[in-house]
Amino acid sequence: MMETGNRYGKVLEWFTCNMPEPRSELDFQNPFQLLVAVMLSAQCTDKRVNAVTPALFEAFPDAKSMASASEEAILHFIKSVSYPNSKAAHLKQMAGMLQERFAGEVPASMADLQSLPGVGRKTANVVMAVAFHEPAMPVDTHVFRVSHRLGLVSDKDNTPEKTEKTLVANIPRAMLADAHHYLLLHGRYVCTARNPKCGECGLSHLCSFHGSGK
Questions:
Q1: Could you tell me the pTM of the whole model?
Q2: Are 31 and 106 in contact (CB under 8 A)?
Q3: Which residues are catalytic?
Q4: Which one, out of 39, 87, 89, 196, has a CA that is 20 to 30 A from the CA of 3?
Q5: Below-70 pLDDT ranges, the chain
């Protein structure tokens, strides 16, 4: 059985060669826009989020304008995303707290981000990694699935937070933000939940799922 360090090294080397410039597929121009987009992306595709955010950001370009808007006004722009009513409420509340506690600016702290309404650990990690280029590892369903299939984590890592902890412990800090995108994009387009494209995957020789018959 391959040693853990060797496995991580081979996986990261392959991604570095085959996905040299990984990036978020959400469209944004500043930390506030990214935070809003990530909140909207919960159980929704990035493509759908990118379809609604241009008009939303034109109407509410910053925390002050969004905080002063009604939930109904925000809902008008996001009604085609999943759970639009609760997301409209969270966006208004989040923007209000940004105004009240952080002078309208998105904080660059995990604790402060998670204090915002509608912002959980994964969302906070995305903002830290993508907006502020901090060494963070957001674990969504894709990252969770791919890291388990590739043997980067064990069966004991049965929650997103446990998986995050193991990945952070084994991936060089400078590579964490990119590694998040490696795993996410690989899971989105190749190592899909159903009918993964194992024949197109350059990591199938390291994969516990490939050839398992599961």
A1: 0.90
A2: yes
A3: 122, 140
A4: 196
A5: 1-2, 210-214
